[in-house]
Amino acid sequence: MTDAVAIDRSRMLNKVPEVTIFFWIIKILCTTVGETASDFLNVNLNFGLTGTSVAAGILLAVALIVQFRTRRYVPIVYWLNVVLISIFGTLVTDNLTDALGFPLEYSTAIFSALLLVTFAVWYRQEQTLSIHSIFTFRREAFYWLAVLFTFALGTAAGDLMAEALGLGYGTTGMIIVAIVAIFAVAWQFGLDSILAFWVIYIMTRPLGASLGDYLTQSQAHGGLGLGATVTTVLFTIGIVATVLYLAVSKADVTQATVAEDRPESRSRSSVVAQVAAVAALFLVASTGGYLWRVDQLRQMASAAGPADQSAPLGDLSSFRGMTQAMLESVNAGDWAKANGHANDIEFAWDSAEARLRPMNAEAWATVDDAIDKALREVRAVAPSQESARMALQDLLDKTANP
User: With 90 as the cut, is the pLDDT of residue 258 above it?
Assistant: First the structure.
C-alpha cells in the first residue's frame, strides 16, 4: 500500500462512529423518534402516509448526499441521517402494510431476505463487513442500505409481534430486551462482534417503538400519556444534546487505524458457522413461536363464535359507541375530548387486532382504514369540523357493515 493510499484511507476512516454506550443511547432515541415523528407528520399534520413518505424521502436523500460528500465522521450529519432513515424505514413498512395490504409476515420475510442479500453482496465485494472501516463510497453505500433494511425489518417484526400477534408493545419490549441481553453476553463469550452488532442493531428498532408506545399512550392505557408531539420533541432534544457532546468531546471517533490491518480474531469458517447457527436459531424460534401464537389466536376466534356474512367481525358495538362519542365531541367543538375518544378507540382497536383480523382480514382492513382516516382528521393540528364529521360517519357505517 502506498503512502498516498494509506493517508487517503486514514482520512476516510471516520465516516461512522465508534460503537460506544453513546451510540446505543442515540440509536434508541432515534428509533423512538422515527416512530413518533412519522405518526406526528402522518396524523397530526395530516400529511397522510403518502405525503409523509415523500417528505421523509426527500429529506433523507438530501441528508445522504451531504453524508457521502463528507470526508470524515461528522456527528451531526451522521445522526441526522439515522433519524431520517428511521422515519423513512418505518414508513416503508407502513406503506407495504397499510397502502399495499402486505401482511406483516411477508414484510418481515422480505426485509430479512433483502438484508441477508445486502450483507452477502457486501462481503463478496469487500471481503469484510467491518463497521470500523467505512472509508470508501461503496462500503458506505452498503452500510446505509443495510441500516435502511434493519429499520424496515425491525418495524415489520416489531409490529408483527406487538399488533398482529397481539403480544402488545410491553411484552414485545421485554422479549427484545432479553434477546439484546443474550447477544451482548454471547459477544463477551466469543460471538463475532460484527454479527452481534447487527443483531442488536435490528432489535433496537422494536425496542424503541415499545418505549415510544409506553411514553405516548395515555395513563388509562398503561402509558405515561406524553403524546407523540411531546415525546418527539423531548427525544429530539436528547439526541441533539448527546450529538453536540460527542461533536465536542470526540468520544466516538474511531482511531486512525484501518480495521483490515488489525489481526483477525477468528477464522472465516468460524464466523460463517456462527452466522449459520444464529440464522438457524432465529428461524426455528421465530417460526415456532409464530405458529404457536397463530394457533392460539385461531382458538380464540373459534371460541368467539363463527362470524356470519352480516357481521364478519362479530360485535363491534363498543367501537361504534366510541365513534359516536367522538362524533358528539366534534359536533360540540370540543377537540380535546374528541382526541381523548380517539386515543380510546385506537388503543382498543390495536388491542383487538389479533382477535378480529383472523375472523375476516378483508373486513378488518376496511374498518382499520376508516379508523386511520378518522384519527387523522380529529388529531390534525388545524382540524376541519366538516371533514372530521364525514370521516366519523363513514367509520360508523363501516363498523355497522364492514
Answer: no
